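Sample entry (343 residues):
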Amino acid sequence: LGRSVGPTHLQLLLDLLKHLVVHSEQLDTQNQQKAEAARAESDLFLDMESVASLEFVTNKTVEEVLVAILKHPTLESWFLALEQKALPPHTLSPILVKLLAAHFSAGVLQLLVASSPILHKLGRLDLLAKYSEAITWSVLRELRTRNVNSATAPKTLPQLEALQELHLYMESVQIREVTLALLGLPEAHLLAQEATQSPGKERQLSSLGRTLVQLLKNSPQDQLQSSELLWWAEYVRGLGALLPTLAEHELDTVFLQTLQRDPVLVPVVSADLLEYCLVRRTKAALGIASLLLQHSSTHLLKFELWCGQPGVGLLQEHLDDFLPLIHVYLQHRTQGCFMRPTG
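Predicted structure, serialized as tokens:
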């Protein structure tokens, strides 16, 4: 296959596989509806063996199709192979292999997008394991090789697109690893280039920044386990440091929910974040500030200092907004061991 027809033929074959999966799912849905209709028609004269046989076929057809397709070694080994720097053995020219590998990964991604909800319903997300590993590895590889001093916004990356499309179906451990790597990036990588060059303009997120927001919004809200304490501490520290930079309402809400669920993490939050919350003055931001005052003497002292000088104008102008926060402060001002003037 040459450069002119190779990508077209490859895309056609991958589209056929995707349509096969979709068609199999439609057939299974139709069979399920027939089984339900037969059961509802008459409980007295119901042929239970026929219904059971129909339900068995319904459960197995699409699953067998998915296993046959997704476990094929060609799909598993070539998906994001270019981004992983792990091309399987081939006899293609360097230019042609890059072209075909890129088209192959894009086509397989669309196949995975169509298949993932079905796999989730069937309880067979294990069939995505190889593909999830490829996404995780290639994204982490890209993030680790970024120049720390470079403020250039990255182009759209195939592995990043795959992460955005499939992260809901990936292992939580993989998502956490990628999230921490994104939180550890320099701020310039998370903002669009125009935003870094024009500080006065409204900040726009780069593709990496948008991906981070997406992962954080959909992060699991499970109760903190003792074995995960270090991970969550890094997560809270990293996200707290980024909130003033990104200024995203949805991230403020995610951060608030995290602290509400696990207030033991409050002490790792930087004292400077309190001032951001006080100035921002949204419901979520003031909710964060309230939790910081309830669970950290450092933030109590920071609030006292802020009220004494930089926050005087805001307090006077928006007293109603700050009254609940002042009430929290008065309830908890005696906690901690720091010293105050007594006069």
